[in-house]
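pinning this so it doesn't scroll away 📌
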Amino acid sequence: MSWLSKLTGKDKSPQGSGASPKQRPSGPPHILIDRNEYEPAEFAMGSFRIRPYDGDLIAKQQFDFRIAFQSGDERIEFACRGIVVKMDGTAGLVARYSQPQPFYERKLIDYLKAWKGL
């Protein structure tokens, strides 16, 4: 490699970095409600939408569920408490949820950043 390419940063090989790039998640975390696993149509910190949803929840009902996702070689799964905001045939299940414990919240934020490509 010439001294000019060293100064300009050109001709850098990706193998030379030493660190392997993290694999980007292909989708949002899964939601587990009553032993059924759903992939949400929309997911954000504090809320999600599942469409179609065929469970027995109704509007304004509080419920317990689990959020699960794969982080590297480790499967992360933790409990959350949610409330149904809207439930109908066209919207599906729209729910808000309370923040998980700080450890799991950090893991979830890292997963969502990787999923969104940030």
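📌 and the second one:
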Amino acid sequence: MNDGKPHPEPIFLVPPGPDDEPLAAQIARALNERRPAPDSLPLLTDVAQGDPYLAEQLAALHAMWEIQPQPPRGVLDRLRRRIAWWLLEPELRQINAVHATLTRLIDSLIVLADRERAARRRIEEHIY
């Protein structure tokens, strides 16, 4: 059912590249080779399921991490947008790369927190 809300873009994974690949090349490759993660991995963790606000914020983060121009409404708007992107494209690409990296880092931290919580639970079960 479509409830009028935009559907969040799926979380993506990037396979590892060569060990000597520079960081900038890794980020560029990550932006170009986006592959959806199975079932939006961090959104399904116990941490996100136990905190509805966190799950909502994760979905919003994945929906809005990329800076994109609004669709033009006329010739003047189209010209203004082309000039702005022509002048600011390197900076906007850098901002998008940082946003993509931060999104992946947040996802990784949530998965790590979930794994730590599960390990702690197993230890507690074993002790008691």
